[in-house]
């Protein structure tokens, strides 16, 4: 039996009405649309200087931010590859995983930033919840809880995450800026070269994407980066504005990050650490569930009730990826919405995921370029992905207020509180309340009341000063 026949039999090409050529093309398509994460994830997780001493990510005393970014690029690739290969050979689904956008922002800006928790402890918390997820997934508990998600919340999570990512991206690009009167306002576009080039780069990327060019986001990031370096070389702007003043040497040694989660367990007060894990658990659980549901929705894999058949297997790939990723030094791994592009190209089996995993490993060769890409260029990806994720909003029954209210709250609360978990919580808490208000008690599952009560507790823990006081 030849290689093609072996792969066909293993992945079930005939059963899924596909072939090897189609699966390879789908894998290449998915990789091109999501490979930006190799640059974007390190950019978000790395603590950048110039924040007035405010820490919002990972920093190493004896390494520059550029070196840390390269380490995180290697870790990103390895963590993604592990999860993707589990998806390919265990779940046999055409989904691809990597450290998730939104979850990495929560890690950097909320946990290590606003909450002031050491990044090693944050990694330890991710490790613990990864193990918990493996356990819960193995017994089917995660799939059951996800099935309790109210439909309007399922279909609105993607849009809420999109808005959250858009704000992060637009701030990094200088297009929006903090304002004392309105909280957020337009940046100084005409005076800020970063904002000007960001706008041009963003529009260029959207133009490529609208033309249906595979890898449009990658080409947009690279094109914007080249323009920034060219303007710097021409003397239009001084070094350090549109391009880094200097670049570190190639950095493939990830030993300062790998295993750092173990240090996070040292001298940790049990109650405070439990609360950190609790926070990560809620954010990761429902964000991963929402993203996987959103991807499956785009791919057409959901059943009539909005559930993904055999969801435990792709969830296991996420759980293992998260656990391994935390051991290596990165935030939670999740399924990427860009996986839908491979599905649209015909990918239907784990062979598509396998191709993506191989391409991620091959991308180790370009790790030194991670430090050469400015943050404003890498964050173009966040805004483009945000717009893509808005598509799910059309599946919400806006003419039914018992759906519109939970969905609307999910979408609104998420970006304005800078928290994915808060948005999901708002939707889940409001659903049984509005359903009860109109007398539709038979449409409320007892488990949805339990979820609502759990999220009320979550709100109390996060906003009542308990967590801040404990750590």
Automatic annotation (TrEMBL):
<feature type="transmembrane region" description="Helical">
    <location>
        <begin position="351"/>
        <end position="370"/>
    </location>
</feature>
<dbReference type="InterPro" id="IPR026033">
    <property type="entry name" value="Azg-like_bact_archaea"/>
</dbReference>
<comment type="similarity">
    <text>Belongs to the nucleobase:cation symporter-2 (NCS2) (TC 2.A.40) family. Azg-like subfamily.</text>
</comment>
<keyword id="KW-0812">Transmembrane</keyword>
<feature type="transmembrane region" description="Helical">
    <location>
        <begin position="449"/>
        <end position="470"/>
    </location>
</feature>
<feature type="transmembrane region" description="Helical">
    <location>
        <begin position="376"/>
        <end position="393"/>
    </location>
</feature>
<feature type="transmembrane region" description="Helical">
    <location>
        <begin position="257"/>
        <end position="283"/>
    </location>
</feature>
<feature type="transmembrane region" description="Helical">
    <location>
        <begin position="405"/>
        <end position="429"/>
    </location>
</feature>
<keyword id="KW-0472">Membrane</keyword>
<keyword id="KW-1133">Transmembrane helix</keyword>
<dbReference type="Pfam" id="PF00860">
    <property type="entry name" value="Xan_ur_permease"/>
</dbReference>
<feature type="transmembrane region" description="Helical">
    <location>
        <begin position="153"/>
        <end position="173"/>
    </location>
</feature>
<feature type="transmembrane region" description="Helical">
    <location>
        <begin position="217"/>
        <end position="237"/>
    </location>
</feature>
<keyword id="KW-1003">Cell membrane</keyword>
<feature type="transmembrane region" description="Helical">
    <location>
        <begin position="24"/>
        <end position="45"/>
    </location>
</feature>
<dbReference type="InterPro" id="IPR006043">
    <property type="entry name" value="NCS2"/>
</dbReference>
<dbReference type="GO" id="GO:0005886">
    <property type="term" value="C:plasma membrane"/>
</dbReference>
<feature type="transmembrane region" description="Helical">
    <location>
        <begin position="193"/>
        <end position="210"/>
    </location>
</feature>
<keyword id="KW-0813">Transport</keyword>
<protein>
    <submittedName>
        <fullName>Xanthine/uracil permease family transport protein</fullName>
    </submittedName>
</protein>
<feature type="transmembrane region" description="Helical">
    <location>
        <begin position="123"/>
        <end position="141"/>
    </location>
</feature>
<feature type="transmembrane region" description="Helical">
    <location>
        <begin position="71"/>
        <end position="91"/>
    </location>
</feature>
<dbReference type="GO" id="GO:0005345">
    <property type="term" value="F:purine nucleobase transmembrane transporter activity"/>
</dbReference>
<feature type="transmembrane region" description="Helical">
    <location>
        <begin position="98"/>
        <end position="117"/>
    </location>
</feature>
<dbReference type="InterPro" id="IPR045018">
    <property type="entry name" value="Azg-like"/>
</dbReference>
């Amino acid at each position: 039996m030849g290689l093609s026949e072996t792969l066909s039999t293993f992945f079930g090409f005939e059963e899924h009405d596909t072939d090897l050529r189609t699966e390879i093309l789908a894998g290449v398509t998915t990789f091109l649309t999501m490979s930006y994460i190799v640059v974007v994830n390190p950019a978000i997780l790395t603590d950048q200087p110039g924040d007035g001493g405010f820490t919002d990510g990972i920093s190493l005393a004896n390494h520059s931010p550029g070196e840390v970014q390269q380490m995180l690029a290697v870790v990103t690739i390895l963590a993604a590859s592990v999860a993707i290969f589990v998806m390919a050979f265990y779940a046999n689904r055409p989904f691809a995983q990597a450290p998730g956008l939104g979850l990495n922002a929560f890690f950097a800006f909320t946990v290590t930033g606003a909450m002031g928790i050491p990044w090693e402890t944050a990694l330890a918390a991710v490790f613990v919840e990864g193990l918990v997820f493996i356990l819960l997934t193995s017994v089917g508990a995660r799939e059951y809880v996800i099935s309790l998600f109210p439909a309007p919340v399922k279909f609105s999570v993607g849009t809420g995450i999109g808005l959250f990512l858009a704000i992060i991206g637009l701030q990094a690009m200088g297009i929006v800026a903090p304002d004392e009167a309105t909280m957020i306002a337009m940046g100084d576009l005409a005076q800020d070269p970063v904002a000007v080039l960001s706008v041009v780069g963003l529009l260029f990327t959207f133009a490529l994407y609208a033309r249906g060019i595979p890898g449009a986001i990658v080409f947009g990031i690279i094109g914007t980066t080249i323009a920034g370096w060219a303007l710097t070389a021409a003397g239009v702007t001084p070094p350090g504005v549109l391009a880094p003043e200097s670049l570190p040497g190639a950095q493939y040694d990830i030993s300062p990050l790998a295993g750092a989660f173990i240090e996070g367990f040292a001298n940790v007060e049990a109650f405070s650490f439990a609360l950190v894990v609790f926070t990560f658990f809620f954010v990761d659980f429902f964000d991963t569930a929402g993203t996987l549901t959103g991807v499956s929705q785009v791919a057409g894999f959901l059943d009539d009730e909005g559930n993904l058949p055999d969801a435990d297997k792709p969830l296991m790939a996420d759980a293992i990826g998260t656990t391994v990723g935390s051991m290596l030094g990165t935030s939670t791994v999740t399924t990427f919405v860009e996986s839908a592009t491979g599905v649209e190209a015909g990918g239907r089996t784990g062979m598509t995921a396998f191709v993506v995993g191989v391409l991620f490993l091959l991308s180790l060769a370009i790790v030194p370029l991670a430090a050469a890409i400015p943050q404003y260029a890498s964050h173009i990806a966040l805004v483009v992905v945000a717009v893509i994720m808005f598509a799910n909003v059309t599946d919400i029954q806006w003419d039914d207020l018992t759906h519109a209210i939970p969905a609307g709250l999910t979408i609104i609360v998420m970006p304005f509180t800078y928290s994915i978990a808060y948005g999901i919580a708002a939707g889940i808490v409001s659903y049984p309340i509005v359903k009860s208000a109109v007398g539709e008690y038979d449409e409320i599952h007892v488990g949805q009341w339990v979820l609502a009560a759990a999220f009320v507790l979550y709100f109390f823990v996060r906003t009542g000063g308990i967590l801040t006081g404990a750590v």
